[in-house]
Structure formats: C-alpha cells, structure tokens
Design a protein that fits this description.
This protein is an all-beta fold and 112 residues long. It contains no helices and 10 strands.
C-alpha cells in the first residue's frame, strides 16, 4: 500500500524554524515536492527536488526553506527557517508526477 506520512509540524513564533519529514512506503519515489494549503486557499507547491538532487523553490520561500531527501530512507525533508505568519498552512508532500495518494499533512502555525 502506497503511503506518505508527513510529520514535524507545530506552533512556532515568527522567525523560528521547523523541520518537516515525509516518509514514503510501498513505492519508490522520484521527483518530490512539498506543498502547502492555507485556509481558504488552493494548495501550492513551495519546494521540489529531483531524484538527482536538483531543487526548486517558490519565490515566497526562496532563501528560507531547504528541501532535501534521503533516498535510502525514502524520506524527504523540508527545513524551514525565518518563518513568517503567512507560512501558516497544512504542509503535504507528494511526488510531482504522477502524484501519489495524499497523506494527512502536518500543520504549521506561525504566530506570536
């Protein structure tokens, strides 16, 4: 059974940091992305990484977020620093294409 499990979210003050993890099981993974969905907004891709390690970042997170992967552990990470209130969202990971069944996501709340 293919499964993506996100973890590492939480409540943090502006300027703080969090590290999200996404563990995949039941499948190999290729190009992967971290997405987020804020209340009332569409899900958006914020960072992506290819099997070879090439990365992509949305302008809104460039310089603050770092995506990485451990192919042996079939796990993808998102290191988030200098967090802002507008980063508040549920964060999901998924394969860029074809997408896998979505996980439950992990909530990130940035608030003072």
């Amino acid at each position: 059974q293919v499964q993506l499990v996100e973890s590492g979210g939480g409540d943090v003050q502006p300027g703080g940091s969090l590290r999200l993890s996404c563990a995949a099981s039941g499948t190999s993974i290729y190009a992967m992305g971290w997405y987020r969905q804020a209340p009332g907004k569409q899900r958006e891709l914020v960072a992506g990484i290819t099997s070879g390690g090439s990365t992509y970042y949305a302008d809104s997170v460039k310089g603050r977020f770092t995506i990485s992967r451990d192919n042996a552990k079939i796990t993808v990470y998102l290191q988030m620093t200098s967090l802002k209130p507008e980063d508040t969202a549920v964060y999901y990971c998924n394969q860029i294409t074809p997408p896998l069944p979505w996980g439950q996501g992990t909530q990130v709340t940035v608030s003072s």
